[in-house]
Specification:
The complex is a heterodimer.
Chain A: H1 3-10, H2 16-23, H3 27-40, H4 52-55, E1 60-68, H5 76-84, E2 89-94, E3 101-107, H6 110-121, E4 127-134, E5 140-141, E6 144-145
Antiparallel strand pairs in A: 1-3, 1-4, 2-3, 5-6
Chain B: H1 3-6, H2 9-13, H3 20-28, E1 33-34, H4 46-57, H5 70-84, E2 94-97, H6 99-111, E3 117-122, H7 128-134, E4 138-143, H8 154-157, E5 165-170, H9 183-193, E6 199-203, E7 228-233, E8 246-249, H10 252-265, H11 271-283, H12 285-308, E9 321-322, H13 333-344, E10 346-347, E11 349-350, E12 362-365, H14 370-395
Parallel strand pairs in B: 1-10, 3-4, 3-5, 5-6, 6-7
Antiparallel strand pairs in B: 2-8, 7-8, 9-12, 11-12
The chains are: A alpha+beta, B alpha/beta.
Chain lengths: 157, 396
């Protein structure tokens, strides 16, 4: 992967000047390259990874495994597009294996998750079954550790 | 007991490593940010660790052959041939050692007689001189200079050669300066040595960690393999410091002697580490590449940061250290390090720990995360600002 993208993935708040120093590019080159990435859709957005546990405890996350039977006029993409519209949905992936769509939800309560699954997801034409897994603990997100790292135990020789 | 009568005079005469001093102080202070460590901050790549676990699960915990696991020696032979063009026989020309340090020790002990002179360019790693002194050899120091890129030059080497010169130590890529020697830099050195009986110990432990330029070994030059002991290891390239594994490759006449010393002193290198090391050499080049890319970003960050602070900094092309000059502060290396440590709780190593020619410099390791380096550089900036304003007041 491009050095610039690697750096941005670990910290999107690095300034163009800082990125230039670390990659050996000029600041102008960095600005131009990032604009190119944004225009061509390589960079889709910038988000912040924070520990939600600390900020607010009033949410529930779940992964829903969806089994889907695509029909002549309604493929995976159409079903995914429909589900993606709901603001509670954080991510959707089409996956291989025992089920088809993996949907991550973020809701305010268990009740909201179950209502959402029962009323919105299960009722979609083509959805055959749903399995809901609630998140218990988050350890790592977007490559960033959310649990404290080991102490540096290296000693000077 | 009167220990002064018991202890070996040679051991007593050894000076303790200059790095230690600050760490003893640092250990007593709280919240010290250390930029002193000379080992990677990365974990050993997972597949290497997995190989070690497998080795333990299968109970393969017996001694290996003295010279090392044959399969590992074969891998070392291939790996070294790819990089140097020289094919060492796994049967007679390779010893797997307990780190690069043991390889250096074995080489010196196999070659150096009391009174023999060993040429050591400085600043350089702290172990060469004491190891030479323990054998009764005489260290002959060449001070390399920043204006020459801290490289060893033929014109500096020639005047140091005498009838007693037995060995030249070539510590490149260099700890602490980060200097490298290119093929063009090495050729004149090789030319000085051709036709002599002087051996070379080339310590290439940082060979995989170079930036923007590929490492070149002196052993690849015509006529050098017969006079060179090639030392390398796993610690730096594969982040395997605690596994204690290195190796030496040399003509069989030398290996024949060195392996006896290894056998009597060590028996064989750690077996689990040796099995894991096979995986490192076979499959872990991508891991090394990733680490090198990360080191390079940090290196650029630090160079830029020191420049902004107004401290001149030689551009290192290897290892994971920068070696800024602190001469403009008017402080000695020792004073700089001590004051920085006490006032800002930041530990760096004085250049003098690596030889007298390190005076006026400090070694800053970038085997730390970028975030950590940034925090440390902010502290160094505060330190310099305060120092300069104090000096201005004194000048008025």
């Amino acid at each position: 992967m491009d050095k610039l993208l690697k750096l941005l993935r670990t910290n999107a708040r690095l300034s163009d000047a800082e990125l230039a120093v670390m990659t050996g590019m000029t600041e102008e080159e960095v600005t131009k390259k990032i604009a190119e990435y944004e225009d061509s859709g390589v960079i889709k957005g910038y988000s912040t990874v924070f520990d939600e546990e600390i900020v607010s405890k009033d949410y529930v996350r779940a992964i829903i495994e969806l089994k889907v039977t695509p029909k002549a006029q309604v493929g995976y993409d159409d079903i995914a597009r429909l589900i993606a519209q709901y603001p509670e949905v954080e991510s959707i992936y089409l996956v291989s294996g025992g089920y088809d769509l993996s949907v991550t939800l973020r809701c305010k309560s268990l009740k909201e998750v179950s209502d959402y699954v029962a009323q919105r997801l299960a009722t979609i034409d083509g959805v055959v079954s749903t399995t809901t897994h609630f998140f218990l603990q988050k350890y790592k997100e977007s490559g960033i550790m959310l649990i404290s790292e080991d102490k540096d135990e290296r000693v000077l020789q | 007991m009167d220990y002064s009568k018991i202890l070996s005079k040679r051991a007593v005469a050894l000076k303790p490593s200059g790095i230690r001093k600050y760490f003893d102080i640092a250990a007593k202070l709280d919240n010290v940010i250390s930029l002193g460590i000379g080992e990677p901050d990365f974990n050993t790549p997972w597949t290497i660790r997995r190989e070690a676990i497998k080795t333990l699960e299968r109970g393969k915990t017996i001694y290996t052959a003295n010279a090392g696991l044959y399969g590992l020696r074969q891998q070392i032979s291939e790996y070294t041939a790819e990089r140097t063009g020289i094919t060492y026989s796994p049967d007679y020309e390779i010893i797997v050692t307990v780190g690069g340090s043991e390889a250096i020790d074995l080489t010196v002990r196999a070659i150096v007689e009391p009174g023999d002179e060993v040429i050591i360019p400085e600043p350089s790693f702290v172990c060469y001189r004491p190891i030479v002194e323990l054998t009764g050899g005489v260290p002959v120091i060449i001070d390399t200079k920043e204006e020459n890129g801290f490289k060893l030059r033929a014109e500096d080497l020639k005047p140091k050669i005498t009838e007693r010169t037995k060995l030249l130590i070539l510590p490149y890529p260099n700890n602490p300066t980060g200097a490298i020697m290119t093929k063009e830099d090495l050729e004149p050195i090789a030319e000085v040595l051709r036709g002599t009986n002087i051996m070379i110990l080339t310590d290439e432990i940082y060979s995989e960690l170079t930036y923007g330029v590929k490492h070149f070994s002196i052993v690849s030059l015509p006529g050098m393999a017969e006079r060179t002991v090639y030392v390398n290891g796993f610690s730096k390239a594969f982040a395997m410091t605690g596994w204690r594994l290195g190796y030496l490759c040399a003509p069989k006449e030398i290996v024949k002697q060195a392996v006896k010393i290894h056998q009597f002193g060590i028996m064989s290198s750690p077996t689990v580490s040796q099995y894991a090391a096979v995986e490192a050499l076979k499959n872990c080049s991508p891991d090394v590449e990733n680490m090198v890319a990360e080191y390079d970003m940090r290196r650029r960050f630090l160079l830029d940061a020191f420049e902004k602070l107004g401290l001149e900094c030689f551009e290192p092309q290897g290892a994971f250290y920068v070696f800024p000059s602190i001469k403009s502060t008017g402080l000695t290396s020792d004073e700089f390090c001590e004051r920085l440590l006490y006032s800002k709780r930041v530990a760096v190593v004085p250049g003098t720990a690596f030889g007298e020619s390190g005076e006026g410099y400090v070694r800053v390791s970038y085997a730390y995360s970028r975030k950590y380096l940034k925090a440390a550089m902010q502290k160094i900036e505060e330190f310099l600002t305060e120092l300069r304003s104090k000096q201005e007041i004194a000048d008025d």
